[in-house]
Specification:
Mean pLDDT: 90
Number of helices: 9
Low-confidence stretches: 1-5
Largest sheet: 8 strands, mixed
Order of helices and strands: HHHEEHEHEHEEEEHEHEEEH
CATH architecture of the largest domain: 3-Layer(aba) Sandwich
Number of domains: 3
CATH class of the largest domain: Alpha Beta
Distance between the termini: 65 Å
Strand content: 15-25%
Number of strands: 12
Length: 302
């Protein structure tokens, strides 16, 4: 028995064949099943669609009016089925991706390039912003996946599942001529008297969070929210700052990065955030993110 959305396909088959019996043979249904479907469609539109003849049927005036509409419905259903199949097979569809700023220096673009190579039919739209924003958007169903640095001591919001990708170490950025610029590594205590450039007056909301929790309280002389401003201030000799390892390759040439001693180095936990039941595209992108994170971790200084 055909499903209700197949009524129009049955109607068009009868219109082409000029017979319930012939249409039933083509569709693989019984003649009575086709007859019941046509009766159901006639009840739905409120008019007879076929004139019953001694041998077969022919379209009534109402049936002739219905033909182009039935063809349109059939074509739309075929398009919908194709689009759903494309989503399932990753030959099409959209992935709404979010990420915090320094993740876009290496992790996200490398993963996105690998994903595009494997699934070129999927469109990826990407938005940058703070992690708290992306967690909210994933929870609201407005993003399919986001790369975030979630707070260590707070659970994710309802409707969000976190998938750990890596723990990212911090480096310290110094001006080229700084006395410690040539060192292999430094202790944070050696830089206690430096002016530290930070992105927030509340150090617990900055990259310094783990170091502050361990008892290090830097002198903060300059507030700068974006990386261009922070590194410009470092290059000018106005202070020093922390730089995430994933952003190291994008640091300007007049700034030197020095490794922080393993006993002092602050780490940032980086995760992918998805809904509890991620889309097919989000699951595929998550797998690529994990591969990319493993490769990047292998090249980090710790």
């Amino acid at each position: 028995m055909p499903h209700s959305h197949g009524l129009y396909e049955v109607f068009l088959a009868v219109a082409r064949a000029g017979s319930f019996t012939a249409a039933a043979r083509q569709l693989g249904y019984t003649q009575s099943a086709v007859s019941r479907q046509i009766q159901s469609l006639e009840d739905e539109v409120g008019a007879e669609l076929f004139e019953r003849l001694p041998r077969g049927v022919r379209l009534s005036e109402a049936g002739r009016v219905l033909v182009p509409h039935a063809e349109a419905v059939r074509d739309r259903l075929a398009t919908a089925r194709a689009e759903v199949e494309a989503l399932r097979s990753l030959d099409g569809g959209l992935l709404r991706l979010g990420s915090f700023s320094s993740a876009t220096a290496a992790l996200v673009p490398r993963a996105q390039a690998a994903f595009r190579e494997r699934h070129p039919g999927v469109t990826v739209s990407r938005v940058e912003g703070p992690s708290v924003k992306h967690l909210r958007l994933v929870a609201a169903g407005e993003e399919d996946l986001a790369v975030v640095g979630p707070p260590q001591d707070a659970p994710p919001p309802p409707g969000v599942t976190l998938h750990h990708l890596l723990d990212e170490p911090m480096l310290v950025a110094l001006a080229r001529g700084h006395a410690r610029a040539g060192r292999r590594s430094v202790r944070l205590a050696e830089l206690a008297d430096e002016e530290w450039i930070v992105g927030n007056e509340r150090l617990e909301d900055t990259l310094f969070r783990p170091a502050v929790a361990a008892g290090f309280r830097p002198r903060t002389g300059l507030l700068a929210h974006d990386w261009i401003a922070k590194l410009g201030a470092v290059a000018a000799g106005l202070g020093v700052t922390l730089v995430p390892a994933l952003a190291a390759a994008s640091v300007r040439p007049d700034v030197t990065l020095v490794t922080i001693h393993p006993e002092d180095v602050p780490y940032r936990r980086i995760c992918a955030a998805t809904p509890p039941a991620p889309t097919v595209a989000a699951s595929a992108f998550l797998a690529v993110l994990r591969e990319t994170a493993r490769k990047l971790t292998d090249s980090m200084p710790y």
